[in-house]
Amino acid sequence: MPRGSRVGLRSEILATALELFLAQGYEATSLREIAEGQGITKAALYYHFPAKEQLVVELTRGFLNDLADLVARARAAPSEARETLRMELLSSYLDLLVIHRQVTDLLAQNPAAMNHPDVGQRARNLIDALSSELAGPDAKGEDKLRVACALGVVHAIVMTAPRDAEKAKRFILGAAVAALQAEPLAEQQRPAATRARTPRAQLRAT
């Protein structure tokens, strides 16, 4: 996009803002620094983004829109394909986290960036909706716990270096699916040290 165009300049401002937010933090970055990094005046920056919060809204819009589309596709899928759908949902969500890695890093590292309702609240609502689709309409407490564990595994992708993310996806997806299918450990499978601990209430009763 040519720099002289209005759309091109907005894209360049967003790229500079994301770079600075990731390098020194959202709260520590001023609009003046973003303007200087882009080589424009503060007035020019204000014309496109009058507040820093608007930069975060625009930076996260693509990721959140993609996540909303994923939830919408899940809701439209036939109920008889639920088991296949769960695998596809986890895989697609993992792909989104890799594709939008810089944005998800921004949100993970900067809680203040989540304060805007169009960012933080929307993200939480979409994750809740995704969890509901993964769990199914008749989910019980254990089903919801399995889904929470599976999503926790998927979110572990942020712990990998960006260059290793594609390689790690298969391992992470396998662990997430295993979490969805997990069963409680039988008493004899629990570690001996755990089994040996007797609740105080039981000791008092003996």
Properties at a glance:
206 residues, mainly alpha, Tetracycline Repressor, domain 2, 71% helix
Beta-strand portion reads under 5%
**Number of H- or I-type helical stretches:** 11
Write down the Rg: 22 Å
The gross shape turns out to be: elongated
Query: Low-confidence parts lasting 5 or more residues at pLDDT below 50?
Result: none
Reading the helices and strands in chain order gives HHHHHHHHHHH
Total domain modules: 2
Helicity level: over 70%
The first-to-last residue Cα distance is 78 Å
Name of the level-1 CATH class of the largest domain = Mainly Alpha
Task: Please identify the structural class as seen in this structure.
Answer: mainly alpha
CATH topology of the largest domain: Tetracycline Repressor, domain 2
Mean pLDDT: 87
Named CATH architecture of the largest domain: Orthogonal Bundle
Largest sheet: none
Q: In total, how many beta strands?
A: 0
Written description of the protein model:
This protein has eleven helices and no strands. It is mainly α. It folds into two domains: 1-50, Homeodomain-like (Arc Repressor Mutant, subunit A, Orthogonal Bundle), CATH 1.10.10; 52-185, Tetracycline Repressor, domain 2 (Orthogonal Bundle), CATH 1.10.357. Helix 4 packs antiparallel against helix 5 (82-99). The radius of gyration is 22 Å and the shape is elongated. The model has no long low-confidence stretch (mean pLDDT 87).
